[in-house]
Design a protein that fits this description.
By secondary structure, the protein is an all-alpha fold. It is 56% helix and 0% strand. Helix 1 packs across helix 3 and helix 2 packs antiparallel against helix 3. The protein binds zinc ion.
């Protein structure tokens, strides 16, 4: 996993907070961005080839997980 700056981190958190309000989108992302047999994301394919290009968990999968964590926090309030 690449390290990301704190600015990017808070942008991801804001995005995750928005996503947390869209549970169907979060579920869709988790289904579409699952790992294949070789540990790569089946949703993040190389353009034009359909070949999985990203190591799983990809950015979108992690974002969906963050959104789930936000939902849990919202549920606890
Ligand atoms: Zn992906």
């Amino acid at each position: 996993m690449a390290t990301i700056s704190s600015t990017e981190q808070s942008q991801y958190e804001r995005l995750a907070e928005q996503l947390a309000l869209m549970p169907e989108t979060v579920a869709r992302l988790l289904v579409d961005h699952a790992a294949d047999d070789t540990g790569r994301c089946v949703g993040c394919t190389r353009p034009g080839t359909g070949y999985p290009a990203r190591v799983h968990p990809c950015t979108l999968h992690r974002l969906a997980l963050m959104a789930l964590a936000v939902r849990r926090r919202m549920g606890e309030r």
